[in-house]
Predict the structure.
Amino acid sequence: MTERASQRVLTGITTSGTPHLGNYVGAIRPAIKASLEPGVESFFFLADYHALIKCDDPARIERSRLEIAATWLAAGLDTDRVTFYRQSDIPETPELTWLLTCVTAKGQMNRAHAYKAATDANLAIGEDIDANINMGLYSYPILMAADIVLFNAHRVPVGRDQVQHIEMARDVAQRFNHLFGQGKDIFVLPRAEIEEDVAMLPGLDGRKMSKSYDNTVPLFEGGPKALKEAVARIVTDSLLPGEAKDPDSSALVTIYDAFATADQRTSLRTDLRAGLGWGDAKQRAVELIESHVGPMRARYEELMAHPERVEDALMAGAAKARAVAEPLMREVRQAVGLRKMVAAPSAKSGKAEPGKQALPVFKQYREGDGRFHFKFSAADGTLLLQGGGFAEGRESGLLIKRLKTEGIAALQGALVEVLAPLPQVEAALSALAAQDE
Ligand code: TRP
């Protein structure tokens, strides 16, 4: 891997809903801020292929893509600085997904959180383990890995729930490098980045603000009126105006803090302790939030009225993104052997796959008499052992297993013909055993 001067930061936003205040404070605002750091190259994209996993309503997909894109642009994303694009405009992504799928262990996908949560829920209600689970959900982490490694991202800012997926991407990238890199790292190994200093915004009921809890404050939707109504519904205790209140036990104060200066935070706390009523505190919060959100909302509405501007921005982003993805994908296709047929593969590269050490192999087969046989060949193809003639496949499997674990000692009394000098057989068996460890 060549050392780059800049760090690539990449993150995706699943386009399955309408952004709320929590999305803005927890993801959009910190990402835009981070994109302004020197030495950082940011890739932000709309994960619309991921959205299809859980949503089969085309109108909602269409609307959410526009709303989320318009939100990012309205919030001040600088598309000259940042590569901002749609996942579905990058054909290299599904192409790479397949290549990664072929080197991903199925067992690892069985353990992915999103899939496991779905199977656990099925089991809990006595359903078939895979009821209503599509292959998209199952392969979700592989598509996500492709998103990340296609751009050789170093850092991936995500919520805690996504950390396992980034680790899986790292594993897959490592495996791919090992199998096909021939000593060179094709992919950068990504690292998850959890924003520790970004407070998680509570919702109306004090739990994390989330569409699934139905406790959100809208960001732009419904205008200032909807903002005011939502803030009015934030749960507080029932202390009356004039009574001293504890500012630190209230979701309202945390939401206020997310937009306030240090001075504003202090004075709200002082006033609540001195008996400021919750109604007045809410009014203050609405005014503060509106002072930040109002100007963005105007830009948002302008963009929503002109979707073609958003489309243009995204297509320009896709061109920038593909300028990175295409050359890498060319290298990757080459590495796995999807190459132009211009010259016959040399004997050397024809025999051993690049990056892979050739190994001795056992091959089992069945003959016309219905009996089970096997052959054992050295890495260079020399036939070393030929055996079997068993009535049961299991017997021949067992013998192979013993040869692998016990070495030539297992030849004693076995139905095997030795076709090469014993030390050569012994060396081949131990090379295989070393690989299996
Ligand atoms: N799965 C992520 C989420 O739901 C979104 C996503 C898709 C993503 N691809 C990604 C995030 C790649 C980071 C990197 O939050």
Remarks:
- The pocket of tryptophan is lined by residues 10-12, 14, 47, 50, 144, 147-148, 156, 158, 162 (CB under 6 Å).
- The chain has a mean pLDDT of 92.
